[in-house]
Amino acid sequence: SAVNVGDNACPPGDQDGITGGINVIELAVSDTGFGVGAPDSGSTEPNITVQNGAMVTLTLTNIGAKAHDFVIRCLPTPNDKGCPTQSCFAPGASLPAVAPGESATTTFTTPATEGAYTFTSDEPGDTRTAPNGGLTGLVGEFNLM
Questions:
Q1: What DSSP assignment string belongs to 27-66?
Q2: Taking the C-alpha atoms of 92, 78, 137 and 124 in order, what is their torsion angle to the nearest 10 degrees?
Q3: Residues 88-126: pLDDT tens digits?
Q4: Which of 1, 51, 76, 140 is the most buried (most CB within 10 A)?
Q5: Pick from 108, 117, 105: nearest CA to 49
């Protein structure tokens, strides 16, 4: 039988009652990891935290010796209500490979569904599967609150 999904059947996923905002984020990528902050800050904090439904302008600067890209993975949202089973950033949130010493900027709106979205560089050799099944290497989390 068909599932009738009403307008309110799929929760928007906002737990803190706050959405939106404008965020300008600098993200450096080296050959060993991501770091939030100016390219010369020496940051090794790979995680970004913003509100859901926020406007983000992200600049990725490659401070490494080889090209790296920026890809945000979808977040699984399993349910039996006929709602979407994953939440994804818009395709324009990802960036193609950036050459060493170069920067690229993208502007996008974060998804409505809160959670920790993994981002990586998926250039050859940038990530590998850890013994626990997760990813290691050039990996961070885009946390939507």
A1: EEE-SS-EEES-TTS------EEE-TT-EEEEEEEE-SSS
A2: -60
A3: 999 999 999 999 999 999 999 999 999 999 999 999 999
A4: 140
A5: 117
